[in-house]
Amino acid sequence: MWVGGGGDRPSDPHENQSHVPGCHVPECENKTLGSVSSEEWQPEWIGWSLPDDSKCHRWQPVDGACGRQSFDNATRLDCEDFIYQAGSSIVAEFDLACQEWKRSLVGTVHNVGMLISLPIMGFVSDKWGRRAALIVSGCGAGVLGLIKSFVTSYPTYLMAELLETVCGASVYPAAFVLMIEWLGVEQRILASLVLGIPLAMGAATLSLLDYLTGYWRTWARFAYPPSFLLLLYPWLLPESVRWLTIQGRLTEAVQIIKRAAKYNKVNIPQDGLEKMLLNEAEQVNNKVEEIIEDESLFRALFKYGALRRRLCVCFVWWASAVFVFYGLAVQAHALSGSAHANYALVASAELPALLANTLLLDRVGRRPLLTVALLITAVALIAIPCLPDGQC
């Protein structure tokens, strides 16, 4: 599951929901720990047993009773146990109240899995094909996502999250590379739009699914099985002709191009087709040999100042975009209103950007468009703290 042009989605909806915990006050309630009904969430004794400005502390009891004079409002104690208004998320199930670092660690582990995934699936893509990488990544994420829905502890959830991301984080790159190699360089912007729209809509749909299922385990058991449809791709989706050509499998490449030509009602001479593929394979192999022999290509980074500056600028741009996107995605639960609606809005926020990118990139250019986008983002982020309380 990938978000946008770069690739990943925000965290799963059940990971973003705050489900604010309540401190368990044994002097005032005899309930077992866990979730409570909405009617029981705001009892009268909360006003004198818990401070208004903290969900992680309670006033020190004086006499073991639950009266107004039974608590010392000058001494705070850390809450030892918690109750939850809703038990549908991992926060309630694994008792992560007032342990923000544990909730944040889920996102950190997810991002680490992305870093591990890209080189592994890149090797799979080059070795066994773009289609194979897409199928392995998608189906692997489906299997591990289902396994994740059965875990019974926080550490095993983290491990399942890591492994699922290692498999699933490369679905978008594999699909994007396959589409690019089929469409050609001049249609890359269109390819980004074609892949980006269903990706953003799918991520927003996950929020609706979470709302309908109401429980994170049920959500996972509905969300992951559709990935097994990728097992049909060997019969539905042709392999990249470019990859087949590089591997010397010209016969298969010719057959695929013939099927595409027949579907599009285009006549391509047999001899000319094979000659074209042979020439392309030779050109690619010559480029690879030049890269291996010419070490100056690697040393150019240290030799040319302009190249170093461009690399540093691109690094800062990319890091800034990632920090902003994931920072906003992780904090979406802090917004007022429905957590599900907030998640859907974050997931679908890329749609206007994708459309603007498609319409303006070739007309305006990369650098001006990127500069304007970053400036607009900066102004919006600076304006957030200036909003009055209750407006965000």
Automatic annotation (TrEMBL):
Which residues lie in coiled coils?
Answer: none
Pfam assignment, any one: MFS_1
> Where is the segment annotated Disordered?
1-24
Q: From which domain of life does this come?
A: Eukaryota
Q: What is its main location?
A: membrane
SUPFAM superfamilies xref list: MFS general substrate transporter
Could you list this entry's UniProt keywords, alphabetically sorted. Membrane, Transmembrane, Transmembrane helix
Which GO CC annotations does the UniProt entry carry? membrane
InterPro entries in the cross-refs: MFS (IPR011701), MFS_trans_sf (IPR036259), Sugar_transporter_CS (IPR005829)
- What PROSITE patterns is this protein classified in? SUGAR_TRANSPORT_1
| Cellular localization per UniProt | Membrane
Per the UniProt record, which residue ranges are transmembrane?
132-151, 157-178, 190-212, 218-237, 311-329, 341-361, 368-387
Q: How does it sit in the membrane?
A: Multi-pass membrane protein
Q: Which GO terms describe its molecular function?
A: transmembrane transporter activity
What's the protein name? Answer: Uncharacterized protein
The top of its lineage is: Eukaryota, Metazoa, Ecdysozoa, Arthropoda, Hexapoda
